[in-house]
Each structure stands twice: as structure tokens, then as C-alpha cells.
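2024-03-11 09:14:02 DEBUG pipeline.ingest accepted 1 chain
2024-03-11 09:14:02 DEBUG pipeline.ingest length=160
2024-03-11 09:14:03 DEBUG pipeline.predict start
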Amino acid sequence: MVSERASQQTFFGVSALLFVASAALTTAWCGSMSAMGEMPMPGGWTMAMAWVRMPGQTWPGAAASFLRMWVVMMVAMMLPSLVPALWRYRQARRDARQQARRSATSRNRNRIKAESFVGHISWQEVQHRKDDSMNTENKTILITGANRGIGRTLVTTVRD
């Protein structure tokens, strides 16, 4: 099993690498956009060429290019605030799994204790009643699981 410290180091290491890569790619794309120059527009202002389709580029191609740039920039901007929340979420999930395991183990332990106790009492009753003093005449008996196993044996015993 991976230790908590190793898991934490892996999580934060991958997050840091993802941040550095997206920030570097964003910086590179921004540098290439500023090198494109500007296009004069009516009214005396200029528009960055980054927003203009390149010759031979289709509209879907331009949209895909914009989305690639937008996603990489969003990772670089949002990852620093998202990582602590993701880490707390991981811790909460881990704690919930551990609590569920402890609860299931506790339930199983208690069930085994109860079954052992009931089995112990039943065995003592059998030992005390070896003389077949259990009288079932004129009594209603409810036997669950009467189609197999102990229930079936009890049904055939009582019926005979």
C-alpha cells in the first residue's frame, strides 16, 4: 500500500508539473501572438492578428485553435486554486473509505459475537434437554429456511 506521504508527494508533484507545462505553453503562445503584428482597422485602431483566421485555415480549425489555447490558459490560471480543494476531497474520500472499513469490520465482529453467544446458549439447552423433554404437541412452530439445511431437518423431525 502506498504511504500517505508518497501519495501526497505524487499528487503535488504531478500538479506542479501540469502547472509549469501549461504556464510555459501559455507564455509561448502569447509570445508568438505578439510577434504576429497587428491589422489596421477602420477608425484608426488595430486588432491583434491572433484573432484573425490564418490563410487556408477553416473556421472549425480556428475554433479548435482557440479552444486549445483557452484550455491551456485556464489550467495555468485555475490549477493553483483547484489543487488544495482536490487534495481535501482526496482526504475526505480516504477517510470515508477507512470509516466504512472500520464500520464493516465492527459489524462483522459483533455479528460473530452474537452468533457465537446464541450458538452457545442453544448448545447448553441441547445438553440440558438430552432427555427429549421438549414437547411440541399442540404448539405452533415457526421454522425459517425450511427448504434446506437445519430448517429442513427440524421440519422433518417435528413432522415425524
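2024-03-11 09:14:41 DEBUG pipeline.report Confidence is low (pLDDT under 50) at residues 117-121.
2024-03-11 09:14:41 DEBUG pipeline.predict end
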